[in-house]
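We store amino acids, tokens; thus:
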Amino acid sequence: IPTMKSLRYLLISLLAILTTNEVFACWYEWYDVSGYYMYRVYEEAPKTAPKMEIGKVFPEIEANCIGWQKLTSATIPLEDIYKVVYKMSLEDFEKICNNRKAKYENKFVEWITKKDTAILDFLRLAKANEYIRVKHNSRWYYPTMDIGINMSLEDVVEEALSVKDARLRDRYLLQAVRALFSLTRYEECVALWDNEVSKLPEDNLMRQLIQPYIAGAEFRLNHTDRAMEYFAHIGDVESLYYCANQLGHPTSKVGILEMVCRYAPNSPYIAQSLQRYIREVEPDGATFGSYGSGYAEEQERARRDRIKWLRPFCLKMAKNSKYPVF
């Protein structure tokens, strides 16, 4: 967790950036990119990742694969889990469901077809849910369209909420919320959150994946304050920005970050967002090296304007004990 020492590094970084180009009078210096990346308190890439498309894998995907590994066996490669959960089509998965006695090279498939068919049934529902939701979101979709599956989103909701398996309950809740959201049954999404999901530990991955849907549901129910609190807690800056504009209160990125601090001062996403903003204002060499370039000078002015917004915000954060993440 970032400390006051980390925040001091941030302030030093900002001051260094502000003074960078005032040493030389006649030319823009060329800097190596590594010389600027000074404020680093959050590791954006996972330290360990499965041997798959590591450059494309989001942290929550890896966490989900690890979760499935814990529910099955540590001997199952994360790559095998990833291929089944994220890459396998509903059609191919249905073939496995209909031929459970076959021998499979994929160790995850072998496990769930022989030793834990409850997971097999869950994944079948999850893939059906995603398939139907994609069809519903198509601009060409109409209610009487044959989408090639004998199941509806209403069926998904009913089945997901009927399963009481404690091991998989949180995963079924995610499927129920996704289906309910696609059906625009936002009140029921919020009710599920209030009655059950919110009682899960805050570090529960399924709770974390459900919360954006609840934020969106609250916003569509015109519960804007609650929606913004949820968006702030999960660090969804873009949605916060959208909400602010919808309310007629357009603001800067720093203003959005202040909203995150106001709604959820303990949110770990404050440090993550700060780090991204600092990276955006750090010179990358592209705007330097060509003295007299109007584009370079314009970029430099814009960069300095953004730093002027960041610096007082960081100073305020450093002086206010309300924000414990620092």
